[in-house]
UniProtKB/TrEMBL annotation:
<comment type="subunit">
    <text>Tetramer of two alpha and two beta chains.</text>
</comment>
<dbReference type="GO" id="GO:0003677">
    <property type="term" value="F:DNA binding"/>
</dbReference>
<dbReference type="InterPro" id="IPR016656">
    <property type="entry name" value="TFIIE-bsu"/>
</dbReference>
<comment type="similarity">
    <text>Belongs to the TFIIE beta subunit family.</text>
</comment>
<keyword id="KW-0238">DNA-binding</keyword>
<dbReference type="Pfam" id="PF18121">
    <property type="entry name" value="TFA2_Winged_2"/>
</dbReference>
<feature type="domain" description="TFIIE beta">
    <location>
        <begin position="55"/>
        <end position="143"/>
    </location>
</feature>
<dbReference type="Pfam" id="PF02186">
    <property type="entry name" value="TFIIE_beta"/>
</dbReference>
<dbReference type="InterPro" id="IPR040501">
    <property type="entry name" value="TFA2_Winged_2"/>
</dbReference>
<comment type="function">
    <text>Recruits TFIIH to the initiation complex and stimulates the RNA polymerase II C-terminal domain kinase and DNA-dependent ATPase activities of TFIIH. Both TFIIH and TFIIE are required for promoter clearance by RNA polymerase.</text>
</comment>
<keyword id="KW-0804">Transcription</keyword>
<keyword id="KW-0805">Transcription regulation</keyword>
<feature type="region of interest" description="Disordered">
    <location>
        <begin position="1"/>
        <end position="63"/>
    </location>
</feature>
<feature type="compositionally biased region" description="Low complexity">
    <location>
        <begin position="17"/>
        <end position="38"/>
    </location>
</feature>
<dbReference type="GO" id="GO:0005673">
    <property type="term" value="C:transcription factor TFIIE complex"/>
</dbReference>
<keyword id="KW-0539">Nucleus</keyword>
<dbReference type="GO" id="GO:0006367">
    <property type="term" value="P:transcription initiation at RNA polymerase II promoter"/>
</dbReference>
């Protein structure tokens, strides 16, 4: 038995057990239902909680809604496994094998499929089969190497794509990514523990310059000083000042600046610049 079938059987048994417990806990006709007694002081009676099997608006029960949402998980996984092939609603219902009490809720399942963010609805005029179909909508519309290169070129930024998001619609993408990286068509950021691809970035072979073999050999033979003391000696030998050299602070005589003394003259201040215009009333 597959995992999906086992999970469906377990959910069915749990639903039957819950319905039996709910029916056994309901008050009978001879036993009146318990009601809250009003307390003194004009206090309102405490309202009883709504049971899990109480009907929802429209005549639908919460247990039926929970069952529908559970089947939606299997429907999304079914469409994801068949991506990029689309499926009709009868095919999805046939895979779900709905029990008889949920078959009447087919319109609700259809509405849930149409409103799901991971499911795309293909209209009749766009479907090759001439029927309305449903297809899984991955995080990135990429299923092969050519689509990946085109999609990376169309991105507005160079932030890259996480490989785990790329596997949502292309599960077997790692071998193709390794091949593209060897051709310098993509750039891979890898994990440290297992060297597995973590993020993929756009790349191009034209960014790589061919180096002459003699230059590569010369570059490989150049060795850096083994210690900091040898590095400092090499820099001093080339008349270069090492950054680790202690700079000597020049000590000089500091001359104090004399503050200018402001002469404040006393006496009465008059408008001397307007003596020819104003009249003198001091007499």
């Amino acid at each position: 038995m597959s995992l999906a079938a086992s999970m469906q059987k377990f959910k069915s048994e749990m639903s039957d057990a819950a319905s039996r417990n709910a029916s056994s806990s309901r008050p009978t006709a001879s036993t009146p239902a318990r009601t809250s007694t009003p307390q003194p002081g004009n206090k309102r009676p405490r309202e009883s909680a709504t049971p899990a099997s109480a009907p929802l608006p429209g005549g639908k029960s919460s247990s039926a809604g929970a069952e529908i949402m559970t089947h939606m998980v299997y429907a999304v996984q079914y469409l994801k496994d068949k991506f990029p092939v689309a499926s009709t609603l009868p095919d999805i219902l046939n895979f779900l094998s709905l029990p008889s009490d949920l078959q009447k809720h087919t319109p609700l399942i259809r509405r849930a499929l149409e409103n799901h963010d991971r499911i795309a609805v293909v209209p009749k005029h766009e479907s090759p089969a001439g029927k309305e179909t449903f297809r899984y909508n991955p995080q990135h519309p990429v299923t092969d190497a050519d689509e990946l290169k085109s999609y990376l070129a169309s991105l507005p930024t160079a932030a890259g794509i996480p490989v785990r998001e790329l596997k949502d619609g292309w599960p077997a993408c790692v071998p193709a990514l390794e091949d593209l990286a060897a051709k310098h068509e993509v750039l891979l950021l890898r994990q440290k523990k297992d060297n597995a691809p973590k993020t993929v970035y756009p790349d191009s072979p034209q960014f790589y310059v061919h180096m002459d073999g003699d230059f590569v050999d010369f570059w490989g033979k150049c060795k850096l000083p083994a210690s900091e003391a040898e590095l400092r000696a090499e820099l001093e030998r080339a008349n270069l000042t090492p950054t680790s050299q202690v700079k000597e602070v020049k000590k000089g005589t500091i001359q104090k600046k004399e503050k200018k003394r402001v002469n404040r003259r006393g006496g009465k201040t008059t408008n001397l610049h307007m003596m020819g215009i104003l009249r003198d009333y001091k007499k």
